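--- STAGE predict ---
source: upstream dedup step, 1 unique chain passed
mode: sequence only
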Amino acid sequence: MELLTFCVTTTAFQLGDDYYQQTEGMAMGSPLSPVIANIYMEHFEELALQTAPLKPSLWLRYVDDTFVLWDHREDITPFLDHLNSLRPSIQFTMETEVDNKLPFLDVQVEKSEEAFRTSVYRKPTATDRYLNFKSHHPDTVKK
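--- STAGE serialize ---
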């Protein structure tokens, strides 16, 4: 257990001539970090939703992005404040729909009276450029 704890919580890195040690969270670059972070976030979500005075009718999460349906007449801001009060190192931000549309990951979700429609979403800053295959990026990135 000590070795596991050491492996997932200890990381050092260099920037220029200075060395830094990560002091909170999972070790950056550790293959175990995403798995353990996901397990923790499942626990965090359960606690957050159980203790919230008003709950969303839908809560979906992929890594660190959430999609929430809020059917209450009350403002959602107290719910956001509740989430951000549980652990200072985990802070949520919020985007709300504009013209019944909300981007989530690379999907544009559009609300109509009957259903939700989806289409591909591209950020306004998207250039649709690809890396030159002869560039100095790792092959896994280029593929």
